[in-house]
Specification:
The chain is mostly helical. Helices cover 61% and strands 0% of the residues. The chain is built from seven helices and no strands. The chain is globular and about 45 Å long.
Length: 149
């Protein structure tokens, strides 16, 4: 699923410019992705777009307490990355909740930072957030230059 999400981002920079689901399924299949992974990825993206992100005013005194399951699943690297994005004002609280929810759906335990960054990228992309090139580069870089392998 993650490879499909990266492919979509790289080929359809504007989230709303991607083809309709039926056409997109055919294109992804022609590229070589498996039908089950295509269905899962597109379902996940459709769910993102239909989920309203309710923005609340930022309160500097507010603190997000992660459940023990979230702490275990996300691990220290992903939690630190969330803190980094929030400090850089790239991730509002409502988007953070979508990121956490998306990461919790992955099979990995704990979630590797490279995959987590793709989840963040997809959520920002689906919400049509302005993405600085350096942020995109950071989100696509897994540290080993071997994304997801």
């Amino acid at each position: 699923m993650i490879d499909i999400l990266v492919y979509l981002f790289e080929n359809y920079h504007d989230f709303s410019a991607r083809p309709k689901t039926k056409t997109l399924k055919r294109r992804l299949s022609a590229v070589g992705f498996e039908q089950e992974a295509i269905t899962l990825a597109l379902h996940w993206l459709d769910g993102l777009k239909s989920t309203p992100a309710i923005e609340r005013p930022r309160d500097q005194r507010a603190l997000r307490i992660y459940l023990p399951e979230e702490q275990r699943k996300l691990g220290p690297d992903c939690l630190a990355f969330i803190a980094f994005l929030e400090a850089a004002e790239m991730l509002a609280p409502a988007l953070r909740e979508l990121v956490v929810e998306g990461a919790m759906l992955l099979d990995d335990d704990p979630v590797p930072l490279a995959k987590f960054k793709i989840i963040v990228l997809m959520i920002l992309w689906s919400r049509e957030q302005a993405l600085e090139p350096l942020i995109v580069e950071e989100l696509l870089d897994d540290g080993d230059h071997q994304l997801l392998h």
